[in-house]
Amino acid sequence: MLDLGIEKMALIGVVALIVIGPEKLPRVARTVGTLLGKAQRYVNDVKQEVNRSMELDELRKMKSTVEDAAREVEHSIHSEANAIEKSFKDIESESASSEVTPVFPEYKHPRKNWRLKQGATPQWYKSRNGVRTKALSGAARVARFRPHKIN
């Protein structure tokens, strides 16, 4: 842009003071300042609009690539599903021609007494590792953890 240093700004100020005069100079400076501010806002708005349009174009491109990938995946899933369905129909037609009845396993009772609760962890493991197996009452818990007096 323009290379305006302090010396050039001072020279412009002195020339403006001589040409415009000391009475009108503040009003002209305010007007020039507001016009420059409006110009900067307009330039910033144009830049933002250009950036938005570029981002929108990028998003549209990204959307189209994602949609294409989704269509390809959907097509491959449909083709695989059709192939599997066709293989099931072939197997079904072969089994229908041979008339084989399916054999189901006989029901076997689990031999579990529902009245007895059995824990998953063995009792010997709990006793070896110091796991509590019985619930303590409130008074017993207080007595257990109460510090003892040393005489």
TrEMBL record:
Topology in membrane: Single-pass membrane protein
Assembly, per entry: The Tat system comprises two distinct complexes: a TatABC complex, containing multiple copies of TatA, TatB and TatC subunits, and a separate TatA complex, containing only TatA subunits. Substrates initially bind to the TatABC complex, which probably triggers association of the separate TatA complex to form the active translocon.
PANTHER family linked: SEC-INDEPENDENT PROTEIN TRANSLOCASE PROTEIN TATA, CHLOROPLASTIC
Role this protein plays: Part of the twin-arginine translocation (Tat) system that transports large folded proteins containing a characteristic twin-arginine motif in their signal peptide across membranes. Together with TatC, TatB is part of a receptor directly interacting with Tat signal peptides. TatB may form an oligomeric binding site that transiently accommodates folded Tat precursor proteins before their translocation.
NCBIfam families, alphabetized: tatB
Subcellular location as annotated: Cell membrane; Membrane
Family, similarity comment: Belongs to the TatB family.
Key words of the record: Cell inner membrane, Cell membrane, Membrane, Protein transport, Translocation, Transmembrane, Transmembrane helix, Transport
UniProt entry tagged with the keyword DNA damage: no
Name of the featured protein: Sec-independent protein translocase protein TatB
Pfam families per record: TatA_B_E
Cell inner membrane among keywords: yes
Domain of life: Bacteria
